[in-house]
Design brief:
The structure is a single chain. This protein is an alpha/beta fold and 342 residues long. It folds into three domains: 44 residues, 434 Repressor (Amino-terminal Domain) (Orthogonal Bundle), CATH 1.10.260.40; 133 residues, Rossmann fold (3-Layer(aba) Sandwich), CATH 3.40.50; 131 residues, Rossmann fold, CATH 3.40.50.2300. It is built from eleven helices and twelve strands. The strands form two sheets. It has a six-stranded parallel beta sheet with strand order 2-1-3-4-5-11, sandwiched between helices. The protein has a six-stranded mixed beta sheet with strand order 7-6-8-9-10-12, sandwiched between helices. The chain starts with 6 loop residues before the first helix and ends in a 13-residue tail after the last strand.
Length: 342
């Protein structure tokens, strides 16, 4: 096994001091262009790769950004990661990704481990479980720059990037009402998550504004996934009277709703309309194509990465909480209620 190239070998090849090599590699002092070029040529010829961990120990941080997401199987989150990664790479930072499977214990273990690697900062989408105290446990308690995105922990006053969840849900529900639906139902996300509670608030605001009353049983909680969306939809579809429209709090839940409708021998939108939230790409290929509230996962990630880099580089001291706009995308899964609906 070949031995790693040392700074001494680079200094000997470039005919400069070890200190000069260190200044070029670490950027700790200016070096004349001629000497810098000799050092860089020596590094290239010897195939030297600096240890990010060793540099992190010297500087007390690396060029690594830790990112924690709750569910890698949900197509929305890779879009967020891509936005983060593009901005980070352009700024010469690298992203280390951890998937928690919506397990808060696993989330805390990842955050603790990431901190031991001395990252420059963290980006966190909190898990759906509620056992952690986000206000005090991490990561700001250790002075580590952090941005929460998509889901903002209750009481969090630091940097955050979220979508206009309440307004998006309000617009979606209002559209259903204006299409003639008065027997409405909603499949919410976990009640303690801010994005889920905001979407529910938008739904409630819309039905209140249009003077529609629905029973509490027509609001069912899910885990923001297809399986619980399917089970909750089956409960709704067995109710009498059956709702003529279901607003699902994300597209994965809506996918479960479409499956339940098919298994019950019903047709969407003839018997029941379905509206989602996220506007994931697969929604254009479902049968029928899914109407949804569009939010840009890529923009969410890119904005969060820029906020974090501003904090790391010290170009901004005050906290920012950015709310990105949403947009209604109407396709074939929504129609006026049919006289055939039960």
């Amino acid at each position: 096994m070949a031995r790693a190239t040392t700074m001494k070998q680079i200094a000997e090849r470039a005919q400069v001091s070890i200190g000069t090599v260190s200044h070029v590699i670490n950027g700790t002092a200016s070096v004349r262009d001629k000497l810098r070029r000799r050092v860089l040529d020596a590094i290239a010829s010897l195939g030297y790769q600096p240890s990010q961990l060793a540099r992190g120990l010297r500087r007390n941080s690396t060029n690594m950004l830790g990112m924690v997401i709750p569910d890698i199987t949900n197509p929305f989150f890779p879009r967020v990661v891509r936005g983060v990664e593009d901005v980070a790479f352009e700024a010469s930072y690298r992203v280390v990704l951890c998937n928690t499977d919506n397990d808060s214990v696993k989330e805390k273990a990842y955050v603790d481990e990431l901190r031991s690697y001395r990252p420059a900062g963290l980006l966190v989408i909190p898990a759906a479980q509620r056992s952690l105290s986000f206000n005090s446990e991490y990561p700001m308690a250790a002075g580590l720059p952090a941005v929460y995105l998509d889901r903002r922990p209750a009481g969090w006053r630091g940097d955050a990037v979220v979508a206009a969840n309440e307004e998006g849900a309000f617009q979606a529900t209002s559209y259903l009402v204006k299409a003639g639906h008065t027997r409405l139902a909603m499949l919410t996300g976990p009640s303690h998550l801010t994005n889920a509670s905001e979407r529910l608030a938008g739904f409630r605001r819309a039905i209140s504004q249009h003077k529609i009353r629905i029973g509490q049983e027509y609001v069912q909680e899910t885990r923001f996934d297809r399986e619980t969306g399917y089970r909750a939809s089956m409960r709704l579809l067995r109710m009498l009277p059956r709702p003529t429209a279901i607003f699902a709090s994300n597209d994965m839940v809506a996918l479960g709703t479409l499956l339940a409708i098919r298994e019950m021998g019903l047709k969407c939108p003839r018997d029941i309309s379905v509206m989602g939230f996220d506007d994931l790409e697969f929604g254009m290929f479902t049968d029928p194509a899914l109407s949804s509230v569009h939010q840009s996962g890529y923009q969410l990630g890119a904005t969060a990465a820029r906020l974090l880099l501003e904090r790391i580089l010290g170009t901004r001291l005050s906290s920012r909480q950015v709310v990105l706009p949403t947009e209604l995308r109407i396709r074939n899964s929504v129609a006026p209620p049919s006289a055939l609906a039960g």
